[in-house]
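Case study 2.
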Amino acid sequence: MIPYAVILIIGSLTGSTTVYYLFVLIGLAYWVYTRWYLGGQGQSLGKRVVGIRLVSEETGQPIGTLNAFLRDICHFVDSVICLVGYLFPLWDPKRQTLADKIMKTVVIPA
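Prediction:
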């Protein structure tokens, strides 16, 4: 989120609407690349920094771009119940959020 926010702030500081929207598109491209492409390969930039990987619970392999996208959609379930779904890893033995349970994914040490 931080790099995305920085891109948007730089775009807004230019004062030009055209440049701002260009930076919004660059930010969205960055978001898609890191969350869905790299995340689908097992490690987004954030996961790489903290040394964790996202894999399928059943196969132990990276989940792919489409499933990373679907997992992000499933995070809506985590947030719709007052963000409690994001707290599930605190007491779940597999440390899964509700989205992870739906998509059958686990986050493991890299």
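The radius of gyration is 16 Å.
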